[in-house]
């Protein structure tokens, strides 16, 4: 194939830009900050207390402080080096379609789910439907659902979805529906008021994309615009926003109504079956697939199940408009108690093999079951990078940011990952490419399967007609089951050099790192019109636990042979090594933070701390955060530092010593009604007793004691040697106390079920008393 002829005069498929002024400003700020850090170090080093003072006791505290400050200073350096080269990307989808037309590659989409209780099947199929309806030739799309729960309820839901898809996909395409998760779509677009056919309705999208285009009406709590011709023209000019539904006539409205009804009915049937907890006789008869569940099968012990629900090659199996459908496959890999299953990484690797057998798409998209596609053009966006004739061959993956649609107004648990998405990853992109963060990532199959990229090796162009096997669906299923067994990977490179890596709670990060160390680059693409929306944790313990898993995994990478500085040395740039280490060093950061927050002989450095907070405040507001939201972020930062990261640190050390085994605590995607209500009201959820909460409340009480005790002493005893250091000390206590306000509330003032249990109060009070007694002995 003549590469030359394809290229002749063709413009690139994507563009890379930098925001010059932002960059300059950032660099200036980073440099000033670093000067401040160095000054603090100098002060600490030169003002060492004399040995005589307080019997030398003060010297240890001072040295500890110096250590903590050295650590924070280095962290500052790492963070800002990683952000040094912020880079932005944009794509030219029209050129892609023009140039490649019917030579577009096959794309295999992997959705992972693990538990029908905490990941409800209706949520899972909404994600599946959203990706089935991508704006991409259906004969080139294949969607695979991996069910680690091995649940026939999830299978049933998928079966229902495969039927619903037949009308949903043509409906989406006809009216340019966005987003294509039916649940998300129907909950955003209310039906227009009766008798208002002349007015066109358009909902202002959530914060960020809302533009004032004219007058409008409030209806059911939503603001609808009256669109004039000019408005519409304007709206279509603003690129990178979802198009308006193109519904015009009464018939169109009827069709919408019909779809909504179909969806609601399906949802009800699924929820009903899930509530009962088993598949009824009647349903069982409707599909041969159910027979694969034997009576003794359970989630931890069952054979491999593979079922092709829609065979895209089957010309008689088409949607309601007669167009081909994407292939849809259900897979539950074999599980046996005596075989480690390696969590999501294991599931992904089984999917890699099964999909190779069935559709063999050269591009793979991975989404978690709670992350639906919010933008039907994302596949095209991703392909713009892979198929760019000039640079495309060096990209292993295209990572989209993880955005969430269940955040409260002020982001109570700081789950938005805003700074990572809007700042850090743009910086990493300029340093060789972002991390792979699990969900919302397009991979080149080749690179995920262990291929190296070098100046002499060029990735194969991924375009061209996919080769379609002639083998029957039945045989494909048979073969696939053989690929999804427990024993298949024995004595192989799977989980090591091939596929996702095993043995790390953040399989995604370590896999991405090893891909980059094999010479590949990656791309961060963060379009205005969000590509994926998922669910962030909705209780404090879930939020802390998730960060514990992440920081533990990242720390383990640092301690393993994949340490970015060792494995990455000479393979990835220093900037990227530093970028990885920001995350890898979270867990050990807990120690200096704890030291700082609990030390009584503390002198804060107003300049650096003040500058850091002011800057982060400006940054947050700049990126659309509220003031309260910023404050919540600071709070959660402190909570995470003193709990999640500490536990992660301890667990990692324990694992290193062989005391602990690897585990993966799946984040719950549902909360009971009371809990969700409190979440919406932004009231922190404690509820259970957890060792993490004991630490939080101990620090809170300790600082309250110090504030009260220190304050009285300052008033009573005017002769304190250095008023200013006392004052600063109290200021810090006061800050911690303010940050801990929700904890005091939960300790003393609340009586709902989300308060802190009294056992936690007693334990922490006991610890505080002991801590206060020790110095008196
Ligand atoms: O044994 C398992 C455990 C989990 N999962 C799936 O893995 C995904 C992520 O699990 P979740 O509990 O939602 O973790 P999060 O912390 O929200 O996920 C982030 O962090 C993980 C690594 O810690 C990555 O795997 C994810 O892609 C990334 O979104 C979900 O779809 C699960 O169904 C499995 O398939 N099998
Ligand atoms: Mn998740």
TrEMBL record:
InterPro entries with a match to the protein in the record: Cellulose_synth, Nucleotide-diphossugar_trans
Localization of this protein: Golgi apparatus membrane
Main location: Golgi
Residues forming the catalytic site: 148, 508
Membrane-spanning residues: 24-46, 58-78, 644-671, 692-714, 726-749, 756-776
Single GO BP term: cell wall organization
GO cellular component assignments: Golgi membrane
Binding positions for Mn(2+) per the UniProt entry: 344, 368
Positions bound to UDP-alpha-D-glucose: 119, 148
Domain of life: Eukaryota
Family annotation (Gene3D superfamilies): Spore Coat Polysaccharide Biosynthesis Protein SpsA, Chain A (3.90.550.10)
Keywords assigned: Cell wall biogenesis/degradation, Glycosyltransferase, Golgi apparatus, Membrane, Transferase, Transmembrane, Transmembrane helix
GO molecular function: cellulose synthase (UDP-forming) activity
Membrane topology note: Multi-pass membrane protein
Protein purpose: Thought to be a Golgi-localized beta-glycan synthase that polymerize the backbones of noncellulosic polysaccharides (hemicelluloses) of plant cell wall.
PANTHER family for this protein: X-BOX TRANSCRIPTION FACTOR-RELATED
Family: Belongs to the glycosyltransferase 2 family. Plant cellulose synthase-like E subfamily.
Name under which the protein is recorded: Cellulose synthase-like protein E6 isoform X1
Organism: Iris pallida (Sweet iris)
UniProt lineage: Eukaryota, Viridiplantae, Streptophyta, Embryophyta, Tracheophyta
